[in-house]
Specification:
- The chain is α+β, with helices and mostly antiparallel strands.
- About 25% of the residues lie in helices and about 25% in strands.
- The chain has 4 helices and 5 strands.
- The longest helix is centred in the N-terminal third of the chain and has 16 residues, at about 35-50.
Length: about 200
């Protein structure tokens, strides 16, 4: 018998922010009030994520510049991870750096090989204010790093390099929102982290 309600069942689907929307390209503010408005936001985030058939969603992807994300994501062993985290902090991102296909609900229909670490730990709080620690490997670790990036104002396209980046930019230009998105990306946003050092170990 199910012991907990299904997340998102009381939420409303909100409009998705797309690449180029300013809220996606600015660091989100810390959540300072824990209460019913935060619970409603999280429910709406789950509802929106499920409607878009995603595995993770950050608050700024629905236009709310607060440090919250939700997830319903498997790892490489097909273990399902479902939850949310408020004011997350990526405390560990290590292991091998692998390139794998990565997409984003804010860049619909597109994906590109992106390097991420295969192990990640995120610490933060539940919507009730209780401390929480989330550890992920494989695809789930990729999801955790992707969502933390969103809350810092970084989209995965900013981490794509070389020929893959050029191909992705061409694909973005062909979308209805492409011109605005390209203007935001420009030649900026190539974070210099250790993941890029593992590109030669990538999966494609």
């Amino acid at each position: 018998m199910r012991q907990r309600p299904i997340p998102g069942t009381t939420g409303h689907v909100r409009t998705m922010s797309l690449l180029g929307d300013p809220v996606l390209h600015s660091a989100c503010a810390e959540v300072t009030e824990f209460g019913p408005p935060l619970h409603r936001l999280i429910e709406d985030m789950f509802a929106t994520m499920y409607a878009a058939e995603g595995v993770g969603l950050a608050a700024n992807q629905i236009g709310v510049g607060r440090r919250v994300f939700v997830y319903d994501c498997p790892d490489d062993e097909d273990v399902r991870h479902v939850g949310h985290i408020v004011n997350p902090r990526l405390v560990t991102a290590d292991g091998d750096g692998f390139r794998g296909p990565e997409g984003c609900l804010s860049l619909p229909g597109l994906e590109a090989g992106t390097v991420r670490f295969d192990h990640a730990v995120v610490e933060g709080f539940t919507s009730a204010g209780a401390p929480v620690r989330i550890e992920g490997t494989g695809f789930f670790a990729r999801c955790l790093q992707h969502e933390c990036d969103h809350l810092d104002g970084t989209v995965y396209a900013a981490r794509v390099t070389g020929l893959r980046r050029r191909r992705l930019l061409r694909a973005i230009r062909r979308t209805p929102w492409g011109a605005r998105g390209i203007a935001r990306l420009g030649e900026r946003g190539r974070p210099a982290d250790r993941a890029h050092q593992g590109e030669e170990q990538g999966r494609g």
